[in-house]
Write a structure and sequence with these properties.
Blueprint: E1 3-12, H1 19-37, E2 41-49, H2 53-61, H3 66-83, E3 90-93, H4 97-112, E4 116-126, E5 131-133, H5 135-140, E6 153-162, H6 168-176, E7 181-183, H7 185-196, E8 202-203, E9 205-207, E10 218-219, E11 222-227, H8 229-234, H9 236-239, E12 254-258, H10 262-275, E13 283-287, E14 290-292, E15 295-296, H11 307-317, H12 319-329, E16 337-339, H13 341-371, E17 382-384, E18 390-392, H14 393-409, H15 413-434, H16 436-442, H17 445-469, H18 474-483, H19 503-506
The chain binds 5'-O-[(L-methionyl)-sulphamoyl]adenosine.
Residues 9-12, 20-21, 23-24, 49, 233-234, 257-258, 260-261, 289-290, 297 line the site of 5'-O-[(L-methionyl)-sulphamoyl]adenosine.
Length: 541
């Protein structure tokens, strides 16, 4: 079986999760679920990055030890991700022994190979971002953090350095050749542009000061230093699978993140891997930012969309609706996207309540009304309306599936998911044009045969559409399959169960998984109840 390994950034535990963390993890979840649907053996990893100085600071502010604070927030992340029904196969914390031990061993290997060496470092420290900035960058931003605008601190340290400069040519070659794919394209160009300005060696350790809290991983060869948090954090992608059972997943197929941390993932991490003689990840995907009602979310503005708010939306509209909105309306590409209630309700009503929900219930009702709930035949897939228009749903479904597979491969996740909705819309158009409810009034054999042809074609199209929607709406899709007695999950009661066959087989029109003559469709409850656009937004408190 082909394997697939997808990761999210590991998130800082100085604070609780918010929409940004959920969004990236959702994209990784949609990718993981889609790849499982395609028949691959998937490993999906997320987790938390705990050795940052800001974790120590935040813990002190809350009068608890760093590990207590990390425990508390790591638990919040776990809880939030479970509430969003993310299907991660593991959750790594960098304070875990399994990570610390291996991260230190990679550093030792780099010291041994001469890729890490001692030197003096003088630079501008951005405490809010935990990174050094070069003189040029610091100057350009008036010696303030480009992200938080807080003053930079001049620091001189005797440090260990990673010889990033050694890997410039090879990195360029990997990126140019597409062996290391950076998506979207705009981001790739940015990285190449910055690479052309040349690479310098980067500090990878911090000298431990007497007043420092004991936090972080020590340099294996020199306990007076600890490993710079970014360097060990990046290695989580490898430490977690660096064992007999999981080694087969490396290299990662996709590292998912937002644009803020692309440089670390597209340049520093691959260079470390080159130095370790490890194969490189295949794709680094950097999406844009979620903004709140048009304004960038920030701590100081206090306009973060917190996880509690998403949970309220999920209670009101179902978490699959939240997943759908975020996955299809979010900043998947190079630009940012808004989270706004008005937009949420529009999308919810048009695509979910009046879209897939209505189509499913309409078709099941008509099958009930005209055929006692059992399909009268195997769907032909091609229906001609009274005005002579022909609807080839069979071809449309095949096209949707083909497009979906291609889009998933290119990580156009929002486009891939819309393929399912596109197919639902085609079903609606076909119903509108062929008017089965009018035809049925004639009650002649010929008319009822045509009604049967229309409805079986609708049912088969919707069966296929729900497969394509499932990576974003696993539970609602499973609900349709349950009501329609479609056995595509190993356990029909468990929306997260594995698929019994790969998409190519499941989605084959008239194939082994199609609904035959006599197949019973139960109506079930409405999937998504229409929302009144004037009702107030779900509030988090
Ligand atoms: N700990 C580092 C990552 C180390 S990975 C080896 C870190 N953590 S973070 O908690 O700050 O998370 C940053 C990531 O959270 C972004 O790259 C993105 O995935 C997600 N987001 C945070 N805010 C976001 C938005 N406003 N919008 C979309 N995603 C955002 O950096």
């Amino acid at each position: 079986m082909e394997r697939f390994y997808v990761t999210t950034p590991i998130y800082y535990v100085n604070d609780r999760p918010h929409i940004g963390h959920c969004y990236t993890t959702l994209l990784a979840d949609v990718t993981a679920r889609a790849e499982r649907l395609l028949g691959r053996e998937v490993f999906f990893l997320t987790g938390t990055d705990e050795h940052a100085e800001k974790v120590v600071k935040s813990a002190a502010d809350h009068k608890v030890s760093p590990i207590e604070w990390a425990d508390r927030n790591a638990a919040e992340f776990r809880k939030a991700f479970a509430a969003m029904n993310f299907s991660n196969d593991d959750f790594v914390r960098t304070t875990e022994e399994r990570h610390k031990k291996r991260a230190a061993s990679y550093i030792q290997r780099l010291v041994d190979s001469g890729d890490i060496e001692l030197g003096d470092y003088e630079g501008w420290w951005d405490a809010s971002q935990e990174e050094y900035l070069t003189e040029t960058v610091a100057k350009r931003h008036d010696f303030k953090s480009p992200v938080t605008n807080k003053p930079l601190e001049k620091r001189v340290e005797r440090n260990y350095f990673f010889r990033l400069d050694r890997y410039e040519a090879r990195l360029r070659e990997e990126i140019d050749s597409g062996r290391l794919r950076i998506l979207p394209d705009a981001r790739r160009n940015e990285v190449l542009g910055r690479l052309n300005q040349g690479l310098q060696k980067v500090p990878v350790s911090r000298r431990i000061r007497p007043e420092d809290v004991d936090w972080g991983i020590r340099m294996p060869n020199d306990p007076d230093h600890r490993i710079y948090v970014w360097i060990e954090a990046l290695s989580n992608y490898l430490t977690t699978v660096d064992n007999d059972a999981r080694r087969k997943f490396w290299p990662a197929d996709v590292h998912m993140m937002a644009k803020d941390i692309l440089w670390f993932h597209a340049v520093i991490w691959p260079a470390m891997l080159l130095a370790l003689h490890e194969p490189l990840p295949r794709t680094v995907y950097a999406h844009g930012y979620f903004v709140a009602d048009g304004v960038k979310m920030s701590k100081s503005l206090g306009n973060f969309i917190e996880i509690d708010r998403l949970e309220k939306y999920a209670e009101r509209f179902h978490r699959d609706a939240v997943r759908w909105y975020l996955a299809t309306q979010g900043p998947t590409g190079a630009s940012d996207a808004d989270f706004a209630y008005g937009r949420f309700v529009d999308v919810y009503n048009s695509e979910l309540a009046n879209g897939v929900g209505n189509a499913v219930s309409r078709v099941a009702s008509m099958v009930q009304k005209y055929f006692g709930g059992a399909l009268p035949a195997l769907a032909t897939g091609v229906v001609t309306a009274g005005d002579g228009t022909t609807f080839d749903l069979r071809a449309r479904a095949a096209e949707a599936v083909r497009g979906f597979v291609e889009d998933i491969g290119e990580l156009r996740l929002d486009v891939a998911l819309r393929r399912g909705i596109g197919l639902v819309e085609e079903v609606d158009r076909m119903i509108t044009a062929t008017r089965p409810f009018t035809l049925a009034k004639a009650e002649t054999d010929a008319a009822m045969a045509q009604v049967g042809e229309i409805l079986t074609t609708c049912a088969e199209s919707l069966r296929i559409a729900t497969l394509l929607l499932a990576p974003a709406m696993p539970e609602k899709s499973a609900e349709v399959w349950r009501n329609w007695n479609v056995a595509v999950l190993a356990d029909p009661r468990d929306a997260n169960a594995r698929f019994v066959a790969p998409l190519a087989e499941l989605a084959a029109w008239g194939g082994a998984h199609s609904m035959r003559e006599g197949h019973v469709l139960e109506k079930g409850d409405a999937l998504f109840l229409r929302a009144d656009p004037t009702e107030p937004a779900p509030a988090s408190s």
